[in-house]
Amino acid sequence: MTELLDASELFEEHAFDNSLPIPDVIDTSVRPTITIQARQFDQFLGLYDDDQPLQTAVWGYMAGNLGGYPGPTIVAYRDSPVTINWQNKLPVDGHLLPIDTSIHLADPLMRPLDAGFIPIVAHLHGGHNLSAFDGIPEQWFTQSKGGPGGTGPREVGPDFESSTAHYANDQQAATLWYHDHALGITRLNVYSGLAGFYVLEDSERAQLVQSGVLPGGAYDVGMAIQDRAFTEDGQLYYPAFKQDPLPGTDETVGDVVPQAFYDAMGEDAPSIVPEFFGDIILVNGMAWPNLDVAAGDHEFRMLNGSDSRFYVLRVSDPNVAIHLVGTDGGLLPQAITISDGDGVQEAGEFIVLAPGDRVELVFDFSRLSDGDRVTLLNTGPAFEPFKGAAADGALLGSAEAATADDPVGNIMQFTVTASTTPFHARLFENGAPVSLAGSFADLAADADDDGIADAATNVRLLGLFEGTDEFGRIMPLLGKAEAGAVITDKMSAGDFGPLFFHSPVTETPLLGTTEQWQFFNFTEDAHPIHLHLTQYQVVEKRQIFFLDEEEDGIPDDTTEDGLISYGFGPSPDYSSADVWIGNEIPLRPEETGWQDTVGVEPGVMMSVVAIFDLAGEYVWHCHILSHEDNEMMRPFLVV
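Given the sequence above, the corresponding structure tokens read:
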């Protein structure tokens, strides 16, 4: 059995010892064309053996001598296109992590995985781009023969068009990110280090910084939060083999993967696991770092780049005020206070950050003094899936919350220093919030309060399901949730039921139209749903009720008419309808504004509205990376 680095010992002896790394920056106003290479190198991640620093082999994005893990932060500007030549310069000696070849994945024939070749493709997450440059999962490409400096053609995926991507940047200022998206190995490539920030600026945001409304410069910091696990010698660890331990638990992979898999594939075969939760928290590639801050305002652009972990974020000192100013797609109309900084720790002062999600938060440290320390805490589930949180932050579904005594209950530390001049943002004037996104368009407006956005010309009902594969392993799936006949084979074009990734396309919005997509979560866990191409807004959330006594992951046909039907109201009558849509659930602050990734909790219907304004093939998927790699992804085609 693999021996893991002791997370508790590392936290006790070295938490907050190291400074938060700030990724290198590439300003595209002076460098609009960039060559970025995926490479392998050793990097210090804040790990130690008997107080001796350990080096870890990782992958990262490099532009010359800029970058690493995370990759360089690319600063782009609205309506100023950027061209990136993505190159695969990984060594041709296999993956850093075990690959499960039993799932649907990028599988080169001429440059095969078992010969050491690795498919990659970069996706600009949150970007509004042509399909050819989107980085959909079958646009992958391998190294050339012989790897870096080698000769011979590379192999490319069936949807590949070019590894040189042109990004239009024709959207408002926002915190985007880029990461690998190769089919079936996204979780492994991102875990190895292939991710970085892409910060889009515009004149509206620049004016807010210039006028002192928002922090800028050194007071504006990106933070990529990712959980990881490591072997005792400091190398990346991702459980796959039967006897591999699942971090933070007493279980092994063999406890969550049925024996039928090993009977078919062999006892030594690596397997995907339902979810992955690491026991060490990295921020910008450093375990539990510290950031020195002034006794004033700082803006933190927080990204959840983890595989499966949802974070419920709070601060240890209630004298720190926190204001939400932006979400995935850009600034909010005005700041929303998350924590008022009045010195009283209130239960509702938290923010949920789902995998793939970003928030822009202004932290106000002005009530603190030189030398004061504050910890960013996580009270999300310790080592299990997220099922939602009540208004007071209590976890739903009997999930065990991480605490400040747990290593995974801590993200990083802030230390107030008088050596830095404080900046005081003008988010409020005379007690009223200042306008931030003056150009904000309320796409989710619903004047007649019928649950359908006024702008929507078509409504689609879509389902989140959970079943099993041919070995009995858990397989999460997306599909249709229209009233009507049940899809029984995960392939045919029925009305209601799960579909494989490669099943025929069922979502075909017309070019230039605005559609409302209603996501029904029929599973037991929350799933962050990400749409490529478009930013959307949440129209509403509602409770849903259904029965699944057959335990097949599909609501029962309780009316026994061979069809799935819907009823409306908080008290289901299963003799008259099979699925019931109940009361509306208030949106959390981080679910407002422009979004590209929002968590849909179990037993919830979430309605979003989006504009589909570029033709071509894109995908929508769960952003739990272990789920999207295991079929919880579907194509859509704008026609």
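The radius of gyration is 24 Å. Try to locate this feature in the token string yourself.
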